[in-house]
Amino acid sequence: MQQAFAKHVSMLAAGALLALSAQAFAESGSDGASGHDHDHSEEHAHDHGDEDIYNGYFDDDQIKARDLSDWEGDWQSVYPLLQDGTLEEVMAHKGEHGDMTAAEYTAYYQTGYATDVDRILIEGDNVTFFHDGEPVQGRYEDEGHEVLTYKAGNRGVRYIFEKAGGDAEAPGFIQFSDHSITPTDAGHFHLYWGDDRAALLEEVTNWPTYYPADLSGEAVAQEMMAH
């Protein structure tokens, strides 16, 4: 997704198809964002609680449909916070408790968080993407969800919405992942977007991540370390 906005969208969508294995770490693993460093060797009970669900262990009958309103609001990308050093404390924390060094985590998230869409505004069924302050808007309708099984054995749910109108440059599909599988107001989310629904489901190395726009960088870092 660079140069004209349409190219930005397609590059992120295409630049992604690198592997389900990374998502096994990215979404099963421990920050408030995409990678949570949890031990998956433990046995999980049939009746999965909130922590199990967050970590990707749940039964199919626990999954419920969700509306776009779950993600309504004004959201900031965390990628600039990684680039300017605001999340250095988060990477150090992960290095102390995870299986990689702080530098390795930083490199991992440089790929995971990468995006040039630094703000997303969701109002009703309208989603506006801001690239360098320039808005591109689409109107989106519910297109169901897909359950993905990752290499580590855990799973994730992508909630999918298809463009029903708006700017031609707006992506044809958006897919949300926020570790929840029932209706709830999201505290953060990972968003995948592009014009190829199936290809987006294969994207597991690049997961642009968004937190509320009114949070300071330091508050975002604290949120990440709390998970």
SSE order and pairing:
Layout: H1 5-14, H2 20-26, H3 50-54, E1 73-77, H4 79-83, H5 88-97, H6 102-113, E2 117-123, E3 126-131, E4 134-149, E5 155-166, E6 173-177, E7 189-194, H7 197-201, E8 209-212, H8 217-225
Antiparallel strand pairs: 1-2, 1-8, 2-3, 3-4, 4-5, 5-6, 6-7, 7-8
Helix pairs in contact: 5-6, 5-8
Give the gist of this structure.
The chain has 8 helices and 8 strands, in the order αααβαααββββββαβα. It has helices at 5-14, 20-26, 50-54, 79-83, 88-97, 102-113, 197-201, 217-225, and strands spanning 73-77, 117-123, 126-131, 134-149, 155-166, 173-177, 189-194, 209-212.
What percentage of amino acids are in beta strands? Answer: 25-35%
Count of alpha and pi helical runs: 8
The portion of residues assigned to helices is 25-40%
- What's the rounded overall pLDDT mean? 84
How are the strands of the largest sheet arranged?
A: 1-2-3-4-5-6-7-8
Poorly predicted spans: 1-47
> End-to-end span in angstroms?
30 Å
What is the N-to-C succession of helices and strands?
HHHEHHHEEEEEEHEH
Q: How many β-strands, per DSSP?
A: 8
Largest sheet: 8 strands, antiparallel, barrel
Radius of gyration: 16 Å
Structural class: alpha+beta
Shape: globular
Description of the molecule:
The protein has helices at 5-14, 20-26, 50-54, 79-83, 88-97, 102-113, 197-201, 217-225; strands at residues 73-77, 117-123, 126-131, 134-149, 155-166, 173-177, 189-194, 209-212. The relative contact order is 0.25. The chain has 227 residues and is of the alpha+beta class.
